[in-house]
Each structure stands twice: as C-alpha cells, then as structure tokens.
Amino acid sequence: MAKSKKTSVDRRGFLKGAAAGAAALVAKPELASAQQAAAPNRGANGSAAEPTQVALARETGGRPAESSRVIEHPGSDYMVDVIKSLNIEYLAANPGSTYESLHESLINYGDNKMPEFLTCCHEESAVAMAHGYAKIEGKPMMALIHGDIGLQHASMAIYNAYVDRVPIYMVVGNHSDGARRNAGVQSLHSAQDLGALVRDYTKWDDEPLSLGHFAETAVRAYNIAMTPPGGPVLIVCNAEIQGDPIQGPTPRIPKLTLTTAPSGDLAAVQQAAKLLIDAERPQIVAQRMARTPEGMALLVELAELLQAPVNSQERMNFPTRHPLAGTGWQGYQPDVTLSLEVGDILPQARTDRSRGAKTINITAVSLSHKSNIQDFGHYADIDLDIGADAQATLPALIEEVKKELTADRKRALQARGVKLAEAHKKAWDDQILQAQYGWDSSPVSLARLSAELWPLIKNEDWSLVSPQGFIGNWPNRLWKFDKHYQYIGGQGAGGMGYGAPAAVGAALANRKHGRLSVSIQTDGDLNYAPGVLWTAAHHRIPLLTIMHNNRGYHQEVMFVEEQAALHNRGGDRSHIGTKLWDPNIDYAKMAQAYGMHGEGPITNPDDLVPALKRGLEIVKKGEPAMIDVVTQPR
Amino acid sequence: MKRFLLLASCAALACAQSPSGDAKHGKELFLSYACYSCHSFDGHGGAGARLVPMPLNQAGFIGFVRNAGRMPSYGPKVISDAQLTDIYAYIKTLPTSPDAKNIPLIQQLLKEN
Fold first, then answer.
1. Beta-bridge partners for A631
2. Residue B80, number of CB atoms within 10 A of its CB
C-alpha cells in the first residue's frame, strides 16, 4: 500500500537525517542547541514535529563529545555496592536514559546478580510486579524507573502499593543539574522535585546529592519501607552522581538495621484483653494484619484462646477451614469487635454502636497519616484505639488473655467454640452447594472453574496469586487455604492493571520455593499492560494464568445499568464504553504472541479440565501458560 | 445431541406454559437490557439473584421489576409489560442446574469440609 511521502515517516530517511544531525551535534553542540532554541521543530508540511538534534543523536547511537571519555569507576558502581548490601533479589524496569549509568553498572559491575534485572514493558508492570513479590516474600523488590515519564507511568501501581501497605524499593533517574543536561528530551525527563509527582502516596522519598548521601538514603529507604505500616519508598538518583567518576575513597556503607514494629501500649492491651474475655459474642476482623506467616499463627492462637470467630479479609490472616473462620452462627450479634489493620473502621464501628457493642481498633496506619489522599478512611467512634502494628501487638495481647482467663471462663468459651464450629461447617457446606448453580452452563460459571481447578492443585504446594473480588470469591469458598503464601489479596487502591503484573511478581517469588502459582485473571485488568506476559515468558516465571474472560469491565456494566434505571432510562446501552467485544479478544493468541503456551477460548465446561491439565504440565516444567475461559459475568 | 434435545424439549414445555410471552424476543431483551450482567447469561445469578427456577408468576415478576428492592426498579417508560412478559417467558425456558447430589466434584468438596 502506497503511503503519502508528506505524512509517512520513512525509517531509512530518518536514520540518514539522524546521522547528519548527530555529526553536527558532535562538532558544534552549543550551536546546535542554540539553533534548536531559535527554530521550532516542524515537519516539512508544518504539521508534524520532527525529533530534535539531540534526540536524533541519541536515537542513532551518536553521542555528545563527552562520551569519548573513559570513566573507569563511575559513581553508579558504588551505588551497586550499596544496593547489594540490602540483599535485594530482583529489580524490575523498563529502560530509561536517566538511569543508564546505573543500568550498566548493575548488569556489568554488579554481574546482574542481587539484584537481577527483569525486563518490563511498562513501569506500571515493574512496580506492580514488585507489589506481588513483596506480598509473598515479605520484603521489597526494586523497581528502577525513568525520570518524569517513567514515574508517571508507574504512579498507579505506586498508589496501589501505598494503600496496600506493601514495601517497594524504587529508584528513579533524574538529570538534576540544568547546566549539564542536554536540551530537549533530557529536560523533558527531569524535574526540580521529582518525588513530588508521587509524594502523596509514597511513604518516603529523598534526592541524595552525593555518593555518601546516596548510601545513607538507600539504607534508610529500605528501613522505612519495611517498618509497619510498610509502603513504597523512592530514591531520586541523579544522572550526574551516577555517571561522574568516584573521587577519592568510597564512603562507608551504613549497616541496615530494621526498626522494630510498634507494639501496643501495655495498659491498652490489658484493657483489650479484659473486654474480649468478658464478651459473650466477640468477633475478630482482620484485614492487612498478617505481614508474615507468624502473624497468621498468632491470630490462630488468639482466636482459639478466645473461641472467637475470625472474619479475614484482604490477606491470608487465618485458615479458611479453621472451625473459627467466619462470622459466627446465624444471628450472632457481636458485643465486642477486635479490628486488626482494618482500612476504614467506620462501617464496623457504626454497626457496633448501633447494637451497643464495643469496638477495639489496632492499626499502625494511625501512626502514619498524610493529608491529600483519603486512604485513611473515616474518623469513627471507637472505644479503644491502639496505635500500633497489629501483628506486633498480638503476642502481648495473647499473654494478657492467658493471664486473665480463669478456668470457669475457659469452659464457657469452649462451649461457645463448639457452637461456632458447627456454624462454620454449615456455612461452608452451604457455600459449596451454591457451586451447583450454572454447573453445566456456557459460558462457564466461576464456581465450576474454581471447583475443577481445586483437585488439580490441592496436592501441590500451590499459591493463588490473583485477587478474588471479581471472581465471586469462589476459591475462598471452595478451596482450603491454610498457608500465608496461598493468597496475596487485592489491589490495595482498587486500581486495575495490578492483577497481571502482581501475579507475575508473586510467581517470581514463589519460583525459588518450588511453588505452583495460579492466577485467575480478569480480562479488563490484563488489557492495561499485557506486555508483562512477555516478561513472564522471557524470565521463565512459572505461572498458570486462567482467563476470567467475561468480555468486559463487568462491574461497570452493572453500574451503568443501575444509573440508567435510576434516570428512568433503559439499560440497553449499558454495553457502550464497558464491554470488550466486537471483536472478541483472543487471549490464546495473545499469550502465544508473547511467547507462552496459550489455548482457548473454552466455552464448554467439559473442555476445562483437559486444558487446565495441559497448562499445569507446562507450568510444572518452569514456564508460564495461559488458558482462556469464556465465563459468566461473575 | 442428546443434551440439545433435552434442552429443546424443556424450552418447548416452558413456552407452552407461558403462552402470552415470546421467549425468543425475551432472550433478545434479556441480553440487550443487560439482565445477564447481574443474573448471568444462564439466569443462575451472580451479583444478582438467581432467576432459575423462577419463583414468581408472571404478574408477580412484572410487579417485582416495577418496584424492586435491592435491584434497580424499571418503570413502564423504560420497559413495557409486554416486553417483561417476553423476558419472563424466556427465563422460564432456561434450564435448571443439576442437583448437587449428582455432581461428584461437589460431593467430594463436601467430604473435604
């Protein structure tokens, strides 16, 4: 097909022009800059912008005169030494010139080990991968980010991690020194206060001005990310400090000592213990409580001491088939609620107040507030508010309960426990029976999908690395979750585009433990940045992705439909702007295009198990695979 | 094939039981008005209630849609009684689910609990 010479960009012509431009730039860099400033970069027809001389030079490999110098010991080598001292396994990155010196030092001087470079197709994928990794491994992974544009790409994933209280270690490049940065692109990718772009939802950021300063900042940043409540931290890393030679002896690298998690005030903990022991119908609500497997074990111990039901959300806080898992028997009206790291306490506190119940709140988020983003939720009437990390407070609370619990009271609590166990079994049986509805339907029901998957993985060391909110929580309703790494929870801030990269990051963390990672992936989420499938294939990250392909942003279909009814108009246009059909997206081909096994679309539920088995076989060999299943909306 | 015939005969029976509605047109409306978004394509529920087996008679169904509780209400300006009658007729054609007792996997899950 012929293209208009006026409007098309011819690659050969571009390179030819680029070479000439680069040569001119090398010969007379200052003049070239001045010329660029005087003449706007317009195309021949006056409509299309042409690349600047500097951009052309960079695009074609031409470099300013300074590149002919040899720098044997750039500052970025020392930065690698500092980063290595933090024992970070991986870094995820989309390449960018603001950190090119550090990039080169990491892969050559640092031998691409600790951390190992993971090539990403989008900065949002890089940060969300680190998000998923940290939820499994309990420590941060690094994301290396390009100045300005890369950081803005990454911002949504940073926000999710911030709200989810997950540590992520981010380094972003910047050309801070205006006198040394080139005109054009380098200015466009630099900022006076780069951290400001994401400061509202970053736990801490700093821009060190020397190598010694970098060392202190780098170690401190790790410490801050890990101190509960965890969160993403950002180091703005100047290109000049990266690229300049190390002058004199290298600064000492400070020792990393993690700050202990804040535990609750003893008097308040004693008060909480008394309220819980005296309660007739206590309940425990846990959200982002168990940071580590120990948190889960502690919660089991506390629940069993109190014989209190545990309503676990957001994380693997409590085994799903434990007799105390759930919300108690029908009509169970709690008179004391113990809330552990609950995001927004208002709904619980309001319910408690309406029935004269007491609310105890333990959260470290009380100690770490910012003003702009409203992630702290509402202020609420609470009877006892303990500003401390819930997991770190549980040992003291358990001890106080043990001290105060009399033999008589213990017997009464055991009787309650028997009733709760019966209620738990009945509730689970009811949930399992719900799976029968739509069992033979096409598209495939999510209950059937989850039920068929379970026997294929239950004897493996498995891990569900995807959220469950959009899949009807069916795995939670049918499977037996009893290990901390078996579920990574949701997005944090509800930002779509998290699911696919977080699954890849979590699967990466699971890989060295030999775990089988499974993701039930929503189609809308995957389409934000599907390039992460290539990252999984390229880095041989074993992960079975099963598409929950309902061909749309389904929740929004319902919302638009509801609004249409509210406005007394028909819902027959609610598919506009919400559905992903016409054409249907072929996820099997998408997976294949990115270099992994892909099959489907599966519409007949009877075809499900053979396809899942084929996918699992590939994953067990160390590769990713995708099975596209066309599903009921939810 | 056997399954298709079974479904076809069920559908024919259901149509015969609701002569005032056009199930074919009802299906078009069920899809275009996005009833499936809450109740699933098979009517077995999701975010919304299960419609199969339909517990209401035709009049009760229309009355419910006009003055729904949790679900948004749809007035006659939005959808006519005749259209709702067609949707009702279509819902009546939708096959019921197999009994959990006849699904070995569900029985296995119950044993594990």
1. A444
2. 11
Class of the domain covering A435-630: alpha beta
Question: pLDDT tens digit string along A54-70?
Answer: 555 554 555 555 556 79
Q: Is A604 on the interface with B (CB under 8 A)?
A: no
Classify residue A514 by burial, with Cβ atoms within 10 Å: 0-12, 13-18, 19+: exposed
CA A435 to chain centre: 30
Q: What is the pLDDT of residues A368-416, one digit of tens each?
A: 889 899 998 999 999 999 999 999 999 999 999 999 999 999 999 999 9
Q: Which residues contact A293 (CB under 8 A, 6 or more apart)?
A: A483, A484, A485
Superfamily holding A75-243: Thiamin diphosphate (ThDP)-binding fold, Pyr/PP domains (3.40.50.970)
- Phi and psi at residue A456, to the nearest 5°: -80, -20
ipTM, 2 dp: 0.84
Q: Which residue has the tokens 């409306």?
A: B29
Q: Assess contact for A473 and B46: CB atoms under 8 A.
A: no
Q: Do A438 and B40 touch (CB under 8 A)?
A: yes
Closest to A145 (Cα-Cα) out of A163, A133, A128, A132: A128
CA closest to B32 among chain A residues: A572
Q: What is the per-residue pLDDT for A56?
A: 52
Q: Which residues of chain A are within 8 Å of residue B106 when distances are taken between CB atoms?
A: 432-433, 435-436, 439, 451
> Does residue A171 contact residue A102 with C-beta atoms inside 8 Å?
yes
pLDDT one-digit tens code per residue, A268-281: 999 999 999 999 99
Q: Does B45 touch chain A (CB under 8 A)?
A: yes
On chain A, the residues whose CB falls within 8 A of the CB of B78 are: 564-565, 568-571
Instruction: Kindly report the nearest CA distance between residue A332 and chain B, in angstroms.
Output: 22
Pairing of strands A142-145, A516-522: unpaired
DSSP H helices, A307-389, are 346-354
CA of A41, closest CA in chain B: separation in Å?
A: 50
Secondary structure letter of residue A196 according to DSSP: G
B74 to chain A nearest CA, in Å?
A: 6
How far apart CA A492 and CA A128 sit, in angstroms, is: 11
First vs last Cα of chain B: how many Å apart? 36
Q: Name the residue among B32, B46, B78 with its Cβ closest to that of A634.
A: B46
How close is the nearest chain B Cα to the Cα of A613, in Å?
Answer: 16
Given an 8 Å threshold on Cβ–Cβ distance, is B34 in contact with A574? yes
Per-residue pLDDT reduced to its tens digit, A267-323: 999 999 999 999 999 999 999 999 999 999 999 999 999 999 999 999 999 999 999
Per the CB < 8 Å rule, is A633 touching B47? yes
Which domains can be identified in chain B, with CATH numbers? 2-112 (1.10.760)
Domain A266-431 = CATH 3.40.50.1220: yes
Closest to A445 measured CA to CA, from A632, A267, A585, A235: A632
DSSP-derived secondary structure for A563-615? HHHHTT--STTTTTTTB-TTTTP-HHHHHHHTTSEEEEEE-SGGGHHHHHHHH
